[in-house]
Amino acid sequence: MKTPAAAVSPERWAKLFTDGFAPLPESLIPALEFVQRREGYLPREAMTALARHLRVPESRVFGVASFYSLFHLKPRGRHQITVCRGTACHVRGSARLLGDLARLTGVQAGGTSADGFLTLETVACVGSCALAPVVVKDKVYGRQTSASVKRLVDELRAPEGRPGIPAGASPVRSHGGRQTGNRRKR
Ligand code: FES
Predict the structure, then answer these.
(1) Residue 77: other Cβ atoms inside 10 A
(2) For residue 91, what pLDDT is reported?
(3) What mean pLDDT value characterizes the chain?
(4) Model confidence at 56, in pLDDT bands (50, 70, 90)?
(5) What's the gap in Å between 179 CA and the centre of ligand 1?
(6) Contact, 129 vs 91, CB < 8 A?
(7) The pLDDT of residue 158
(8) pLDDT in tens, 11-42
């Protein structure tokens, strides 16, 4: 998890937006992307300052920020595991996998462990429905089972965790924004 952005004052945010973005409504998404890249999430102070800069209601900024899964309203863990909850993955047992992961990690969907180690997330579809059920951890893993997601967690926990393909899992090359990009949150 990155250092909390509370260290960035509202005045500093205002300056960053003034320097980098025209005060026009169309600057909204690029400015949010800028904040997300810089902080790893969207601090409230930044969104308030952005609304002022763009002269749009705060509700519009929050609405856009909460619509796209690209944006995160809370700090995230150093590692992320994302379970696809789209229809194809649901039919093939993604709810069970999500429960398995919550039990194994002690983190509920949408949450982050207290030590900032792991965030457990869901996504609507990553575009690999033929491989359902799908879990994303750095890359897409298809045809997941309770046993294979346990191996993913074990690898994450191991100090010298072997990166790569757990036995029985089917890694799929990620396709840029098709993983968790501009897709609506569930
Ligand atoms: S529904 Fe899970 S990849 Fe499409």
Answers:
(1) 21
(2) 97
(3) 84
(4) very high
(5) 10
(6) no
(7) 77
(8) 999 999 999 999 999 999 999 999 999 998 99
Cα–Cα distance measured from residue 165 to residue 131, given in angstroms and rounded to the nearest whole number: 15
Contacts of 106 (CB under 8 A, 6+ apart): 113
Q: For residue 136, what are its two tokens?
A: 């994303």
Token pair of 90, please? 């649901």
Query: Which residues lie closer than 8 Å to 89 by C-beta, 6 or more apart?
Result: 83, 125, 129, 132, 133, 134
Rounded to the nearest 10 degrees, the angle between the axes of helix 58-67 and helix 44-54 is 120
* pTM of the predicted model over 0.70: no
Q: How far is the CA of 174 from the centre of ligand 1 (A)?
A: 13
Q: Is the pLDDT of residue 132 over 70?
A: yes
Superfamily of structural domain 79-178 = Glutaredoxin (3.40.30.10)
Topology annotation, domain 5-67: Arc Repressor Mutant, subunit A (1.10.10)
- Burial grade of 144 (CB within 10 A; 0-12, 13-18, 19 or more): buried
Token pair listed for 2 = 């990155």
Ligand 1 surroundings by CB, under 6 angstroms: 84, 86-89, 125-126, 128-129, 132, 134
